[in-house]
Amino acid sequence: MKIGPIEVWPPVVLAPMAGITNAPFRALCREQGAGLFVCEMITTRALVERNPRTLRMVRFAGSESPRSIQLYGVDPDTVGRAVKMIVEEDLADHIDLNFGCPVPKVTKRGGGSALPYKRNLLRRILRAAVANAGPLPVTMKMRKGIDEDHLTYLDAGRIAVEEGVAAIALHARTARQHYGGVADWDAIARLKEAVPEVPVLGNGDIWSADDALRMVAATGCDGVVVGRGCLGRPWLFKDLANAFDGSPERARPTLGEVAAVMARHAEGLTDCFDLERYAVTDFRKHVGWYLKGFTVGSELRRALGTAETLDGLRESLARLEHDQPWPPNTDTPRGKSGERSKVYLPDGWLDDQWDCDVSQDAESDISGG
Predict the structure, then answer these.
(1) pLDDT computed for residue 43 by the predictor
(2) Where residue 100 falls among pLDDT bands split at 50, 70, 90?
(3) Which candidate in 29, 101, 221, 230 is catalytic?
(4) Is 101 a catalytic residue?
(5) How many CB atoms lie within 10 A of CB 323?
(6) Helix axes 119-132, 76-88, angle to 10 degrees
(7) What is the pTM of this model?
(8) What does the alpha-carbon distance between residue 310 and residue 297 come to, in Å, rounded to a whole number?
């Protein structure tokens, strides 16, 4: 799969996930298999204002290549300035634009998965990004639409191709579905038929490498984007590399091997955040994902989930039954799920799909990523 000048094999992309796909987690995933590994979502306003937290988030390890940044923006001028900054300061090799975030604090201000409904605004943002990207490929990630009555993905895909976007990823759910229900893989096939000029990547309900192969076979998509399926399971990328190379081999680590990765993950976060207690606290959310399916007593789970220091975490990890084999039937949903009763939108957002008005404070409470 080619995304502009970048060759990607296996055709696999790590989805940007807030609070997850920081440098330490990307390193664990990248060492398992090749692909494109995208950092956490970065707001364009925070980047151009040089928010200190944001500048830390766009740091890549020297071994990371290609370097991928996902931008969230609602103002074409600010998006253009952010892309120009990335090019001039050599901050990345690939830029992805977020039009898929479904969380209320984003959609209620007209961003994320709400934005493609405004066709002209979408076009202006894409045009500003591509015009300032120089040799860097610009891609976009989106959802089917706001809800089943307001689908936008086919229009958005055609607009993206017209404006020079190098590839398009579709999370085959609406914003209203959030992370619930079943991903509509048929929509991925329809998008691929509508925009044959560029690679189309499918996203949604890939819990195993075999799911990825089934998606490609069922939809004709050029590659896959993996998000929640790799939570607590960076070795999924080894499975994906094997699967796309035709190998039936799958990673099945013992609990001891999982524990070793957990320790490395926490240590990496400490180096990233420069504050041990904060890093270990941040790591706690990963504990349940790593231990999914394993037999671990409630007291030990509690100790791992409340650790405050690396030494305390290591002591609890040492108490795990290290020779316990990989549990069966764990290629199942992980992470947040569930549908929303409604999508929060700006007042009057659905009245006119062509206007370009966006609130000036659309990014005010998500500055810093």
Answers:
(1) 93
(2) very high
(3) 101
(4) yes
(5) 8
(6) 20
(7) 0.94
(8) 21
